[in-house]
Amino acid sequence: MTLQTSVPHIYAAGDVIGFPSLASTSMEQGRVAACHALGMEPLAPPEFFPDGIYSVPEISTAGLTEEEVRTRGIPYEVGIARFRETSRGHIMGLNSGMMKMIFSTKTRRLLGVHILGEGATELIHIGQAVLNLKGGIDYFIQNTFNYPTLAEAYKIAGLDAWNRMTR
C-alpha cells in the first residue's frame, strides 16, 4: 500500500480515501505516502487500527466483529466484562459499559475487541496492540493489570472466555 494514485506524483490519504476517516489513521496513511514519495521503504502499516466514536457513551473497536468471524467460519468464543463489575467501575459509579473480546478456539488468538462505555477510546489500544502482535487469550489471563482500573476488564473478559473454552 503506497497510496499513490494513477497520477504518479499525486498521493491520496485520509478522508478522501474513505473508511475509517480517523485522524490517527490518516496520519499513518500520510506517513506511508510520504515515505513512498521520497523513495523510502516505509514499515508496513499495522493490520488493525482502532476505530472510535466519541459519543456518550463512547464506542471503540479493533479487529473482527462477531458477525465477520461467523461469516469466515472461524470457531470462536466470546468473553465479556461489564464495567460495573470492576472495582474501578464501582468507584466511578458506573452502571453501564462493557468490553467484548472474541478469541479463536482453535488458535486461542484474539480476533476482535469491542468496547462501549467510559474511556472506550482510551482502553482500545491494549486490545489493538495484542491483535497486531498476534497475541491471544494467554496474554490476558496471565498478565497483571493495575487495580483498580477499567483496563482490568481485559482480564475479566479474558477469564470469561477462557472459562467457556476449557469446559
UniProtKB/TrEMBL annotation:
Alphabetized GO MF terms: NAD(P)+ transhydrogenase (Si-specific) activity
Entry annotated with the keyword Oxidoreductase: yes
Keyword vocabulary terms for this entry: Cytoplasm, FAD, Flavoprotein, NAD, NADP, Oxidoreductase
A Gene Ontology term for the protein's cellular component: cytoplasm
Enzyme Commission numbers on file: 1.6.1.1
Cofactor(s) it depends on: FAD
Cited Gene3D superfamilies: 3.30.390.30, FAD/NAD(P)-binding domain
Subcellular location per the Swiss-Prot or TrEMBL entry: Cytoplasm
Main location group: cytoplasm
Domain Pyridine nucleotide-disulphide oxidoreductase dimerisation: 50-155
SUPFAM superfamilies: FAD/NAD(P)-binding domain (SSF51905), FAD/NAD-linked reductases, dimerisation (C-terminal) domain (SSF55424)
PANTHER family for the chain: DISULFIDE OXIDOREDUCTASE, SOLUBLE PYRIDINE NUCLEOTIDE TRANSHYDROGENASE
Record function comment: Conversion of NADPH, generated by peripheral catabolic pathways, to NADH, which can enter the respiratory chain for energy generation.
UniProt record similarity statement: Belongs to the class-I pyridine nucleotide-disulfide oxidoreductase family.
Protein name per Swiss-Prot or TrEMBL: Soluble pyridine nucleotide transhydrogenase
Protein source organism: Bradyrhizobium diazoefficiens (strain JCM 10833 / BCRC 13528 / IAM 13628 / NBRC 14792 / USDA 110)
